[in-house]
Records
---
Amino acid sequence: MKWRRDWFEWEKPIVEEFLKLIQGCIMRIDAHDQLVWAGVIHGEYKVREAYNTLVKAVGGKNNEVFEKLWRSKGPPTAQLCAWRVLHSRVTTQDMLHNRGIPINNFNCIFCNSCEETVNHVFFSCKKTSSIWKLCDKWVGVQNVHHNEAHSHCLGFKLAGLGGKHNGVWRMVWMSIIWNIWKHKNDTIFKKIRSVTC
Ligand SMILES: [Zn+2]
């Protein structure tokens, strides 16, 4: 292969990478160039294939909790909110602090006695944990809930129920998460006081 000019020093690793990429490709003068999705053999781009490729690229696997989340029949807004909680992508005091935003009070908006983290706000806070206990009471079970989002979600199931019915039960989980989030925002922006459980 012959290039029209010499490479700058900073371009050399890119050229090397490019040459590795096309190694083994056969050039054909009778064929038209076309874009193909390299993630799959047939070359056709699909969002699901792209998602799987990205998950593999970061060394992860298609996590069970997300499979259940996306298969759920819950409203997309609640699904998205749950996804953000599972990825710790909701705004809490500790997150704002980590982003360099000055924080005067690190305490939880609901109980004002513990540091506000995602896991605290949604699961271990005395205000919100009482909601999960009420769910148990509602269906007559006694459960020990985890204080971490993934484990909490996976543990929120009813023994003796099949996958379909537990899928419905998981919609309750998403709805509670969504409503805690909405109530948190109302407490901050509309100054609505927290309900004592
Ligand atoms: Zn709290």
Note: The chain has two domains: 9-57, 72-189.
---
Amino acid sequence: MKSLSFLSLLLLLFIFTQANTHGWKRKEARGSQHQHIRIKKNQQSSATKFRLYTDTSEEGCLILSDQLETLDKCSFNDSLPLVMIVHGWSVDGMLEGWIWKMVAALKSQHKQTNVIIADWLSLAHQHYPIAAQNTRNIGQEIASFLEWLEESVQFSRSNVHLIGYSLGAHVSGFAGSYISGTNKIGRITGLDPAGPLFEGMSPTDRLSPDDANFVDAIHTFTQQHMGLSVGIKQPVAHFDFYPNGGTFQPGCHIMHVYNHIAQYGITGITQTVKCAHERSVHLFIDSLLHDDKQSMAYWCNDIHTFDRGMCLSCRKNRCNTLGYNIRKERLQKSRRLFLKTRAHMPFKVYHYQFKIHFINEIHEKQVEPTFTVSLTGTKEDAENLPITLVEGITGNKTYTFLITLDIDIGELMMIKFKWEGTAVWANIWDTVQTIIPWTKGNRQPGLIVKTIRVKAGETQEKMTFCSQSVDNVHLHPAQEKTFVRCANSSRRLKRKFR
Ligand SMILES: *[C@@H]1O[C@H](CO)[C@@H](O)[C@H](O)[C@H]1NC(C)=O
Ligand SMILES: *[C@@H]1O[C@H](CO)[C@@H](O)[C@H](O)[C@H]1NC(C)=O
Ligand SMILES: *[C@@H]1O[C@H](CO)[C@@H](O)[C@H](O)[C@H]1NC(C)=O
């Protein structure tokens, strides 16, 4: 983790020093608009190549926006929607491998779609600040292309979905804002929209919700160094998804760096630095490939609140589906949605909120136990899931946790709740007991857990579990208690459950 931070720091330093040596200022961005006008006058010099994906040509079939016959030649079907993929900054001047995976995923699920790759490599294969500056021109070229489609074959822009990765997200935003007329492009998806030189800019200088009828974004690498992050942190869409908090992604840590370098040599390093950034792409591809494993995300203020299981509500648009199949609800304000994911495809996990009321019988002492839970469902079991408490347990209080499962266990039927502890721990506990005078008879003091309330994010089901042994509710170190669905009391408890 530490070394990766170091690598990404290097990457950012590189970007940053380049930015300084080239003296990027917003003024220059405005200057580039003049440059664009020159490009627009002369279609021949369009820097963007529009490659329509066909099964027969690996490179894609080139559509030239002043040559109507190329539409026919490439078998562009104007009665089908158009998805246009826009890549980002290019280090080596070649289209990255994910593009073909994305194309294949789109085609496998939605055969009735035109898929075009907007290839702007010649202007993306530059120092980062130059490439960033070029996003405006490319956005304008895409806008002109869509206008041409509209004029020549009455192809409606509302049938267009732009999917832009990194700088490509801002390219898409500019395309949406430069297209003439009042109607907007149908949808823009920003995949980890680039941060440096866009973070904190006004909505007209980056991807923003008013660039299309519907805008969604997935933020996967917003880990910050010296005020800069590869991916933009701020919300830029109607729905902004922050998988695992958006800063960094599971499976992208140091062990994988070593593996990659061993396997691929030095290119392994850049691959790993890109890992979290590019995760946004693979999450989107995942949503296309696994219809039955759609990841759900939930509205929350921040990841810390989310990690306490506080945000699993789906009421009033509070949750949405990540990726292609998102519910296209347009809200006044950007909504930040959080979710956990696995380290690989399919990325979906199942989110549960656990709400446990503890009574610590030793009021003066704070205990910091380690708990594990084992869950029995109608389909599967999940065993020994650790619960990490952020604070010690004092007095008489309700604590909430987030628990995620890789598998669908079906309906939750039984919970085994264990206070992990060694003999040493049990000894300490005994010592504590002898120090503190105990007056309530000969029963050993402990933690009392009467009920466990559970909410399943994916099904929105709420359940209450009662201790199986009603007469012995005390929990001690190294002890396990079994909780089953409460009988008959469910209605009464439901009211208490927020
Ligand atoms: C275009 O797509 C429509 C709808 O699927 C189909 O009916 C039509 O045959 C297609 N046109 C061409 C030229 O393939
Ligand atoms: C715990 O707190 C609740 C209300 O906050 C109170 O009714 C109850 O008596 C307390 N129980 C103990 C054992 O302190
Ligand atoms: C639930 O309540 C009903 C009537 O109120 C009773 O007949 C039944 O035995 C109860 N079930 C359990 C599991 O306690």
Note: The pocket of 2-acetamido-2-deoxy-beta-D-glucopyranose (ligand 3) is lined by residues 487-488 (CB under 6 Å).
